[in-house]
Amino acid sequence: MAEHFSRAGYVLVLSGRSEEKLSALKEKIGQDTFIYPADISDYKSVRKLLEYVEKEIGRLNVVIPAAGIYGEIGSIEKFDPQKWEETFRVNVFGAMCVVKYAVPLLKKSKQASVIFIAGGGEGAMANFSAYVSSKGAILRLSETLASELAQYDINVNTISPGLINSGLVKQLVSVGSEVAGEKAYKDALAQMNGQMETITPDKACELCVFLASEKARGLTGKLFAARWDDLEKIEAHKDEIMKTDIYSSRRIKPKDRGYDW
Questions:
Q1: What does the pLDDT look like over 51-70, one tens digit per residue?
Q2: Residue 59 domain-assigned?
Q3: Helix (H, G, I), strand (E, B) or coil at 245
Q4: Prediction pTM value
């Protein structure tokens, strides 16, 4: 993500828990890259991060709270409630805090964007209630903030990056089939072994750069899928997208399926 935005001409402020990894990334990307270690699950740490941004740069055009974890994996009978709660602290509370403390800086930009990261595919994911529930919360948070921040011309959207080999997949394999469930475990093994079709992070990164650009101005409160959605068509049909529930997460009603009850 950092490399794609750097190539698009952005000045970057990168944050994460590991100063060592941040420093290596800064060295790789080069100029116009600032780093500041922070823990997204700690609101005081997040607040200091945004204070640093204000001091060093003074404003923000784009905010992407990309940190996320699977958290507690297992059946509802067996999982640890405290670990389940921690998943929400990182995936939801942390993402909210980043935006909360970023809003004053985003307001200074004539056209700003917030881009959340969803995941978990569609439908139920047995034994992953913490992760899936947290990502469902992100969708509602994104829609709500889109409405709340529209008056400041701040677009707020969510993307689903698609099936990518990441640290989350390795974590799933490490807990084993007894905890993750037989199907999820086998799928993760197949994914890591190259037996299941995956995509690189590039499509998700390209989607984020697009949503932050002038081409996507006016698109807000929507959920886009990096793997399936065509950027040119999104740009060409912005009016239809915003006038309908296209690219929205919605309850399916009887009339939506041709029933009159």
A1: 999 999 999 999 999 988 88
A2: yes
A3: coil
A4: 0.88
